[in-house]
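JOB MANIFEST
job_type = single_chain_structure
chain_count = 1
residues = 168
[input]
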Amino acid sequence: MLITLPFLNRAIAEYLSRDLTYQLSADDVYLIVGCSQAIEIILSVLARPGANILLPKPGYPFYDVRAAFSHLQVCHYELLSDQSWEIDLGSVEALADENTVAIFIFSPGNPCGNVFTYQHLKKVAETAKKLGILVIADEVYHRIVFGSDPFVPMGEFGSIVPVTLGSI
């Protein structure tokens, strides 16, 4: 269910803009009951015959289950455990083909707890742009960060390609 509460959309846009170098508008915010429902909607929208999505390994299993329900093929890219669980962009490029519609990323990562750096997220956005796919950034745990790497919202690269999922 899509919720329409203009005053709430404005307040959320202002709140999220605090972490960005630009301002979101109320029109940039879509309210849905729960992040799981947002995942279902996004995967349903992306589903078409032969389409595939890129998911991390290890990752959050709900995406695999819901993708199967939507008849989306899943290709798993590697996370580099010896490099703070960064995305192996070489494996992303090797897996992507003309049927790839999106790459899903998690930062802070579930289940690894990693937080991607600004530089790494920029490379992810540039890779997605080169491949002609969306970046779906699951940032539900954006306020639960441990260690020295600060949280950087994928929305910072909004001029390149991303869609961000969050939760309040």
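[summary]
Helices lie at 6-17, 35-46, 62-69, 89-95, 118-131.
The two ends are 16 Å apart (CA to CA).
exit_status = 0
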